[in-house]
Amino acid sequence: MSRRVTSAAFLLLKFIRREVFVMTLKMTPQQFQKVQVLICRLCCNYDDSYCIALDDGEPCHCIQEISECSIYCNYFKNAVLPADRKLYAEIVKNNS
Q: Cβ distance 20 to 74 under 8 Å?
């Protein structure tokens, strides 16, 4: 195997490992309702209850929309949730 391919494989493995260990954030039923609104209004990957980012040829339901007790979607956690500063702070504080 060439050095370039080995290096690319190593970087990919490093990226995957980092994603695997991302902590999920727990949320209350009230926070879940607010999260639902954020998903519908602000998530660019959300399309009528489906996730464009997870679409690999077959439609895939939005993971975050159906998970009632935790935040599993890294895109939502990093890009959408911070748009509501109060909710973000509340969820992070409850998980500290």
A: no
